[in-house]
Amino acid sequence: MKRLITIRNVEEGGDTDDALKNLNLNLSSDLEKKNNTTTLPLMRLMGFFLVSFMLFSVLFSLSVVLRDPPSDAVLEASPTLTTTVFQQQGVNNISSDSVEKPIDKLIGGLLIDGFDERSCLSRYQSANYHKGLSPKPSSYLVSRLRKYEALHKQCGPYTEAYNKTVKELRSGQFSKSSPCKYVVWISFSGLGNRILTLASTFLYALLTDRVLLVDPGVDMVDLFCEPFPEVSWFLPPDFPLKSQFHGFNQKSEQCYGKMLKNNSVASSTLPPSFLYLHLVHDYDDEDKLFFCDEQQNFLKKVPWLLIKTDNYFTPSLFLMPSFEQELKDLFPNKETIFHFLGRYLLHPTNNVWGLVVRYYESYLANANERVGIQIRVFDTDPGPFQHVLDQILACTLKENLLPDVNREDDIVSPSETPKSKAVLMTSLNAGYFEKVRDMYWEYPTVTGEVVGIYQPSHEGHQQSEKQIHNQKAWAEMYLLSLSDVLVTSSWSTFGYVAQGLGGLKPWILYKPENRTAPNPPCRRAMSMEPCFHAPPFYDCRAKRGIDTGELVPHVRHCEDMSWGLKLVDRDNFD
Ligand SMILES: *[C@@H]1O[C@H](CO)[C@@H](O)[C@H](O)[C@H]1NC(C)=O
Ligand SMILES: *[C@@H]1O[C@H](CO)[C@@H](O)[C@H](O)[C@H]1NC(C)=O
Ligand SMILES: *[C@@H]1O[C@H](CO)[C@@H](O)[C@H](O)[C@H]1NC(C)=O
Ligand SMILES: *[C@@H]1O[C@H](CO)[C@@H](O)[C@H](O)[C@H]1NC(C)=O
């Protein structure tokens, strides 16, 4: 019997690092659409997993039922803990390997109880798959999130306060007494970038007591659950300025940078009812004044701020004196901003969550260790390239993330229960995955470990706005975040999202120059924070250029982009 499953190709997409276009790299246009299909003898494998799985579940439920209830102390100390079962190990050692431990479904108080679980399964189930947050979020952050939720409930779409402010926006007049001010996030750029900018914009909303409203764009509703209780975060379709979103740019009349250029801010006595903030990688010196306290003082008075950005601009907020104390209180650990805000805000919809869970349970759950390898090649050719493969292997072998193979000696030394590693690779191209998979099929490992290589999709090129494509891309980022160790590519927002959600400090593959594998091939990241690719280099007080990567110990230049900025914790310096 020969049954084959054809796997549709999906690319590692949504990862348009638009900032790169700025660098005259002109890459994406040349990437040709390829229509590879790969066939895999999957049926048998899946059958095996299914049977093992069912067996495991049955035995497992028994073991849970028969087990002692968790101690009262645990339950009393934290009434929100639910006891869930953690299945770390595989099917071989059921009774002893299935560790029962309390899962904190509210992840350190970041989430609140009371949402309808079925409407968004990932919200409370993700704790079963991710490692817990480490370190824990500060109690101040938790209390600020609760305060934000109350504000959102008061001011969100179609509340009385919202209706009033929208009416004022229509009329162009507004009363100073309105309790609600807004920041509208305009859906813009690839999925990886959008995830990073949502987190930065939410942080800006927290810092300025604004309500975050999200332009649903083409596919946001299909990708993300509602993060706030009761009142939606999506901007209603009848929002008055909606038809203008697409056209907003640096030349727009309402663009704040443009107004500063024209001196129309200083001359006007009344602040406008809304402003457009252009924080896209191609922004200019006046647009960048957004990151100066003086301008923030003016922006405070404007009820509606509309932001278009493709960058994780958080690091520059940490350089502004007016936000310094608040940020210190919210985030005693500087490198956990995206980790906490991402886990708080970004819950995959049930469709996406199904993709995550089914893949995880089928290929990754039973391994002793999970290794994520995220490959993004910035080249005009689609590849695959030998130098990239060489670099991946050089990095993973040198850093002991994967075992070497024995090419001379074909004798299999059977070990009783070999340790297993599951490697999840993501790439637009299937070539690297096939080569690595074949290597571990054709030769035994020197350690006797069993290495399985998996790649969910390979769509050949990026398709930023295709729905199922972005659902799969989001699922892949999430799956990577469930790794125990992670290898990422330089400059890729896809990798930043995975490392941040997973709380992982990845090994970063240096960007190859001149189609040559760099030596050393990779380095460990200083922190799990994403890199801000287009930061301003300006000293607001002195009104002159300055290296903003040298001002404070916790804002440094990135490992993968010498002019980028990222947050690090002080004690992580080598
Ligand atoms: C199962 O695990 C226990 C403790 O971890 C170990 O003592 C035992 O040998 C294992 N059994 C098998 C069949 O691997
Ligand atoms: C706000 O306006 C919408 C229609 O635009 C209406 O359906 C809703 O009831 C209003 N909300 C309140 C609290 O009046
Ligand atoms: C900018 O300045 C020019 C010349 O002073 C003026 O004609 C124009 O209306 C101004 N634009 C805005 C948006 O204020
Ligand atoms: C890149 O490679 C070409 C040909 O191999 C060589 O002539 C050139 O000097 C190299 N450039 C750099 C920056 O190494």
UniProtKB/TrEMBL annotation:
Family that this chain belongs to: Belongs to the glycosyltransferase 37 family.
Major localization class: Golgi
Protein name per its UniProtKB record: Fucosyltransferase
Membrane topology: Single-pass type II membrane protein
Subcellular location(s) per record: Golgi apparatus, Golgi stack membrane
GO MF term set: galactoside 2-alpha-L-fucosyltransferase activity
Transmembrane segment boundaries: 42-66
Lineage, top ranks: Eukaryota, Viridiplantae, Streptophyta, Embryophyta, Tracheophyta
UniProt keyword Cell wall biogenesis/degradation present: yes
Keyword list, A-Z: Cell wall biogenesis/degradation, Glycoprotein, Glycosyltransferase, Golgi apparatus, Membrane, Transferase, Transmembrane, Transmembrane helix
Taxonomy, superkingdom: Eukaryota
Any one of the GO BP annotations: xyloglucan biosynthetic process
Enzyme class: transferase
Record carries keyword Transmembrane helix: yes
GO cellular component: Golgi cisterna membrane
